């Protein structure tokens, strides 16, 4: 089985669900910008639980895309050492996409996800119990903080990215309705207001 490497652009994404990696043999690199002087407690605790599988990479110096260049360098270094590895860049920055296309052309398995729960090995099986699916969706949304989907269609796309196989429109609508029924969301003219647990 190929090793999985997770490279988190911490300037761009501060995941609240880092603990989901604890039961998976992933190697995790959290890239911290020069101006980021604090790491939230939940991140520090989750990183500590990963032991020697986790590493902070502090960027020395500022500049446009300084952190992105560091991530690109690390992928190159890691891919040279483990050409069969799977690399996951956790970032909302689409600037990585041309690099990803180039690396895929070199047969390097690399993807960009905006959330840890979108990593294929961590996705929810379609046949999971409804309660487990809703719990996973809620964890993902809580982990997104203020960057949660604001529209029903965007929420459905998010849900679709969290399951292993594609869901049809009826299945997605049923999950959104279940979230409304459980008072996790309020929908008004296609806009969503969240009432998620802390």
- Rg: 18 Å
| C-alpha termini separation | 36 Å
The CATH class of the largest domain: Alpha Beta
Number of strands: 7
Mass-distribution shape: globular
Helicity, in percent?
A: 25-40%
Percent in strands: 15-25%
The CATH topology of the largest domain, please?
Answer: Rossmann fold
Mean pLDDT: 89
Largest sheet: 5 strands, parallel
Classify the secondary structure makeup into a structural class: alpha/beta
- Reading the helices and strands in chain order gives EEHEHEHEHHHEE
Number of helices: 6
Strand order of the largest sheet: 3-2-1-4-5
CATH architecture verdict of the largest domain: 3-Layer(aba) Sandwich
Uncertain residue segments: none
Number of domains: 2
Task: Label this structure with key terms.
single chain; 198 residues; alpha/beta; Rossmann fold; Arc Repressor Mutant, subunit A; 2 domains; 7 strands; 37% helix
């Amino acid at each position: 089985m190929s090793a999985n490497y997770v490279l988190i652009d911490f300037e761009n994404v501060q995941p609240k669900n880092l603990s989901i990696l604890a039961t998976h043999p992933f190697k995790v690199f959290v890239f911290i910008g020069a101006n980021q002087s604090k790491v939230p407690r939940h991140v520090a605790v989750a990183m500590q639980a990963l032991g020697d599988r986790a590493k902070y990479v502090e960027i020395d110096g500022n500049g446009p895309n300084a952190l992105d260049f560091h991530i690109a360098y690390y992928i190159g270094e890691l891919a040279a050492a483990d050409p069969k590895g799977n690399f996951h860049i956790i970032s909302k920055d689409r600037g990585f996409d041309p690099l990803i296309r180039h690396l895929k052309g070199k047969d390097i398995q690399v993807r960009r996800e905006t959330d840890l729960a979108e990593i294929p090995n961590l996705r929810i099986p379609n046949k999971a119990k409804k309660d487990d699916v809703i719990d996973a969706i809620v964890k993902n949304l809580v982990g997104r903080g203020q960057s949660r989907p604001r529209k029903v269609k965007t929420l459905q796309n998010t849900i679709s990215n969290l399951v292993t196989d594609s869901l049809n429109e009826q299945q997605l609508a049923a999950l959104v309705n279940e979230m409304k029924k459980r008072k996790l969301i309020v929908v008004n003219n296609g806009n969503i207001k969240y009432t998620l647990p802390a």
